């Protein structure tokens, strides 16, 4: 900082400051139709384009507020795993990268687990954050899935995972790959407790996440237009040297092929989850019993 900038009054500094993230998100270009969308309107529309229905990425907090009653939930505490055990460095040190993303997102890592109520029924949600290093799966994510499943078992509640990921976190090497069996164990805990595990696949869900907990749900819901696959379409095309069919690896295509059970628009997601939880648990029977008793 030069002596001149020390002398400049804050008002003038603010005029020349580079636009920050908040200013960037004032207007967003829809990747579907190219229309410019006003940030506030977009947020009110659950980050779905009013023009073409394209589902843009939904921030973690907004997603949790959307699915839980009265937008109320409690984030589940997760003990932090050892940081940067490999002392990894590419253009930047991994530890610095982590710090940067924590500052940017205000979250410790790429998955947040929370407990709340969906239409009166207790539920646990584990939401992956694509903004945090591409939603990559490292030790912290594995730990969060385990804690989420443990909480669900303690509360006899369903677990809903919202996936969005580029895959395993290369900065953690083999330790990131170990999260595939670890998250599978979390799913197994749900199965042993005979509690529902529902997966909501959002754009994009790829790599090691698709190869583990994202594809092990009792029910798989996908958001419209979401890309879901292991390797990306370009890699596959180059490998097999064939043109891929229209809509390949998209939610609707995968539903036609039986890989996905439902494609649900965001505005209808909460109601769909509530309906599924009711069907899959005793809570439904009890709630129905009560309303029948009240009606009689
Ligand atoms: Zn659009």
Terminus-to-terminus distance? 76 Å
Average of the residue pLDDT scores:
91
Number of helices in the DSSP assignment: 14
What's the CATH superfamily of the largest domain, by name?
A: 2-enoyl-CoA Hydratase, Chain A, domain 1
Query: Which CATH class of the largest domain applies here?
Result: Alpha Beta
Tell me the strand order in the biggest sheet: 3-4-5-6-7-8-9
Q: Could you tell me which ligands this complex binds, including any ions or cofactors?
A: zinc ion
Number of strands: 9
Q: Which stretches are poorly predicted, pLDDT < 50 over at least 5 residues?
A: 17-22
Order of helices and strands: HHHEEHHEHEEHEHHEHEHHEHH
Structure class: alpha/beta
Proportion of strand residues:
15-25%
* CATH-defined fold name of the largest domain: 2-enoyl-CoA Hydratase, Chain A, domain 1
Radius of gyration: 21 Å
Share of residues in helices: 40-55%
Number of domains: 2
Q: Can you name the CATH architecture of the largest domain? A: Alpha-Beta Complex
**Biggest sheet character:** 7 strands, mixed
Question: What is the overall silhouette?
Answer: globular
Ordered list of secondary-structure elements with their pairings:
Blueprint (H helix, E strand, L loop, with lengths): L2 H5 L2 H7 L4 H4 L2 E3 L6 E3 H6 L15 H8 L5 E3 L18 H12 L5 E8 L2 E8 L10 H17 L3 E7 L7 H5 L1 H14 L4 E9 L1 H4 L8 E4 L10 H8 L10 H6 L5 E2 L5 H12 L1 H14 L1
Parallel strand pairs: 5-6, 6-7, 7-8, 8-9
Antiparallel strand pairs: 1-2, 3-4, 4-5
Helix pairs in contact: 7-9, 13-14
Bound molecules: zinc ion.
């Amino acid at each position: 900082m030069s002596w001149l900038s020390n002398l400049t009054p804050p008002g003038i500094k603010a005029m020349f400051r580079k636009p920050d993230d908040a200013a960037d998100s004032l207007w967003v270009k829809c990747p579907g139709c190219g229309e410019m969308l006003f940030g506030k309107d977009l947020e009110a529309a659950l980050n779905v384009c009013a023009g073409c229905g394209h589902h843009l990425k939904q921030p973690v907090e907004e997603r949790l507020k959307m699915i839980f009653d009265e937008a109320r939930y409690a984030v589940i505490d997760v003990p932090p795993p050892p940081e940067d055990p490999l002392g990894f460095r590419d253009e930047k040190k991994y530890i610095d990268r982590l710090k940067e993303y924590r500052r940017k997102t205000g979250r410790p890592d790429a998955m947040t687990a929370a407990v709340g109520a969906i239409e009166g029924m207790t539920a646990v949600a584990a939401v992956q954050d694509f903004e945090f290093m591409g939603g990559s799966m490292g030790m912290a994510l594995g730990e969060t899935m385990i804690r989420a499943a443990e909480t669900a078992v303690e509360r006899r509640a369903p677990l809903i995972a919202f996936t969005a990921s580029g895959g395993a976190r290369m900065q953690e090497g083999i330790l990131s790959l170990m999260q595939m069996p670890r998250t599978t164990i979390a799913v197994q805990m749900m199965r042993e407790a005979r509690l529902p595990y529902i997966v909501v696949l959002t754009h994009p869900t790829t790599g090691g996440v698709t190869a583990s907990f994202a594809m092990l749900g009792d029910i798989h819901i996908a958001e419209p237009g979401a890309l879901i696959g292991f390797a990306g379409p370009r890699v596959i095309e180059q490998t097999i040297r064939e043109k891929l069919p229209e809509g390949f690896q998209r939610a609707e295509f995968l539903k036609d092929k039986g890989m996905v059970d439902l494609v649900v628009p965001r505005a209808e997601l909460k109601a769909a989850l509530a309906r599924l939880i009711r069907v899959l648990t005793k809570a439904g029977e009890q709630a129905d019993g009560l309303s029948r008793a009240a009606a009689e």
